Amino acid sequence: MDYETLRLIWWALLGILLIGFAVMDGFDLGTAALLPFVGRTDTERRVVINTVGPVWEGNQVWFILGGGAIFAAWPALYAASFSGFYLAMFLVLATLILRPAGFKFRSKMDDPRWRGFWDWALFAGGVVPATVFGVAFGNLFEGVPFSFDGDLRFHSQITLFSLLNPFALLVGLVSLSMIVLHGAAWLNYKTEGIVQARARKVMPYAATAFAVLFALAGVWLAHKEGFRVAAGLAHDGPSNPTLKTVATVTGAWVKGTTMPAVAIALAGAGCALLLRRMPLWAFLASALVPIGTIVTAGLALFPFLLPSSTDPNVSLTVWDASSSKLTLGVMLGATVIFLPLVIAYTAFVYRVLRGPVRESDLGGHSY
Amino acid sequence: MDLVTLSRLQFAVTALYHFLFVPLTLGLAVLLGIMETVYVMTGREIWRDLVKFWGILFGINFAMGVATGITMEFQFGTNWAYYSHYVGDVFGAPLALEGMMAFFLEATFIGLFFFAWDRLTRVQHLIATWLLAIGTNLSALWILIANGWMQYPVGARFNAQTMRMEVSDFMQVLFNPVAQAKFVHTVSAGYVTGSVFVLAISAWYLLKGRNIEFAKRSMTVAASFGMASALSVVVLGDESGYTAGQNQKMKIAAIEAMWDTEPAPASFTVFGLPDMENHVTHLEVKVPWMLGLIATRSADTPVPGISELVGIAQKDIADGLIAYRGLLALKQDRNDARALKDVDGHVGHLGYALLLKNIRPDIENATPDEIVRAANSTIPNVPVLFWSFRCMVGLGLWFIALFAFSFWLSAKRQLDRWRPYLWAALLTLPLPWIAAELGWIVAEYGRQPWVIVGVLPTALGVSSTTASNVALSLIGFALFYSALLVVDAVLLLKYIRLGPDAPKPEEAA
Lengths: 367, 509
Description:
The structure holds two protein chains of two kinds. Chain A has a domain at 3-216 and 325-361. Helices cover 69% and strands 7% of the residues of chain A. Chain A has helices spanning 3-38, 42-52, 56-73, 75-84, 86-105, 112-142, 160-163, 166-190, 193-222, 259-274, 279-301, 325-352, and strands at residues 146-148, 154-156, 225-231, 245-250, 304-306, 316-317. By secondary structure, chain B is mainly alpha-helical. At the A-B interface, helix 3, helix 4, helix 5, strand 2 and helix 12 of A face helix 2, helix 3, strand 2, helix 17 and helix 18 of B.
């Protein structure tokens, strides 16, 4: 396989891993974000926690694997994005660290203050990552202030405040509403009675918020400066991001190719809302929202991965920020073998654990 | 403190914290598999109680391992950006494979382990438990392949077009002999930790005169599994020493505080006070022949001393500078044929030239005196390595003795007779963790000044972020982890006190 094709496949795989993360970990992040509101009593909250209790650890591996795969296939992106977004990343890690402890430790002490503390810790562990990831994505469209020196050492001028620009915050809210919708759809599917009723009540608000904010971001983007490769970028050239020139063009991020994905995201939100009395179908529809949104963002940015606002010429793209051909090939082979295996046994586990979580199920090893 | 020191400190703190939980996960997972196998084969309920009780403690520990592990996966990018760019093509692959082959396996089947006792048949549940154990061990395999490559970077070469290391032969990275020795040594250490944990807590029950049948069965499993593992740690630790003798001569010379090359076979220093300033070791007590046999597996190959290795480093630095000057010429003219030839011929020692970056930025103009200084910087901290290594080995020998005695007592069915023995078993509880952390200090601190031996000096690997950012995250992680560690310890103690036959608190709540 040639270098160009391998890079394109790994760009697609990056999207698939992000989608895996947003769809799988997305519903447990959303569930955690809703925990204090859909569960009022301790038992209700335990029902909510136990809907994701057995599976959230596996779901979170999509995030970890996303990190590992970016490291292996896009080392320049791994280095630049995580060191550039330093404090944002610290915030995400700190709240994600709370989750294992929250799930595992919460119900092991009886004190209501202890349990209340962990409930809010889980809430933070859901809301903060969901929002920060959106803000980070939003900044890709703004361009991020960074440059490279002659040794290809990455220098960033990013601060926590430079990340918090209005457009990025809007994308943060798009992400949050998407995750909350997905979490509500999950609870609608996995619970009964009052908890289910409360989760179902959240769905119209979340779906509407998502659709409006997503459309707003699209309109805003049409008036924004986008990036376009001007010259000097061979698709099978060396992974050195300093050899090309890039032009900025208003509206360059808005592309016709994204329209089917936009339609999928909006249709997913609409169907999740309309089908909410058929919980499994509503949940599957809400999974289309992150799929459509991530594909939209990926196609809009293509071939850019991390645009630079200080020196657009050194922006990272699909064609000059990848691993070597050999590494991409070997890792593709491993992915083709192991990812289907992972999906197969994950599906088996969900089958074993199928059916709603009831109060009578709490006990034994449950949280 | 400067950026490099803070970044190293943060990595050390987060990695050492993470490794408080990893060895117990490795060991207990396999012990759970063994106990559940006995349960499925005999059908006796008490064995299921064993699995369930040790499983609760496993779960609390596993959660902490996951929590502290998340940071590790991203820390290379956040704090070691140049490192990630420079070696990501090689180093990233095992990390991604770890996610795909190991993390998914353990994280998915831990859900079934806890939640599916009633939803699976006995054999199905047993399979889930073993897949969980295999997942944890595969995870150790991949991360140690990555770490082994940092110690002995085979199968990769520098690419001048992309200014980074790239894989030339994946099989060499995969079957790196250092990585294999490290893997066996590390998982065996994990098994010892799990066995000591089970042994010590069971001893406490026997001292209290409670849960006697339960404790004796647990101890029997721990004694036999621990015996095999403790032998494996020391025998295959020796194997680590052997490969270090081949590729990491400086590390072994520092561990032995061997300043000058000795005629073969070299002697082993049992006691001494190494003096970094004057390059001598005071009050040495030596055992003749021992080191030569361990490090070279022969009686006539000399083990090189620190002074000789520093001399070799000087030559390597001078050689690496030829490649570095070639790279500078290539930046002016990408097609400069002579520069290309210089880079090709000398790039193997480029890393040694980069050591000069700690002394001056324009290293192409380095003076002979500066080259000597850079060569001297390849000596790691000798007293720390010397003593960490000796304490670790001493503890390893103690574990063998303890398990051998436990094994003998359990064969004679006298595990609950000897209170001094039970106290010794209980007091051993913290020791495997100390040994494991010392082992990492020897491995990683002993690798300094390199982050990748001979390829990239540690100081160059950091991100171009600000020291205040790193100070903030370092303090944040330290406080956060410490608070979680306290919670973890409180919960473990609570469940140990409740014991195996107490009602589950979830049921009581």
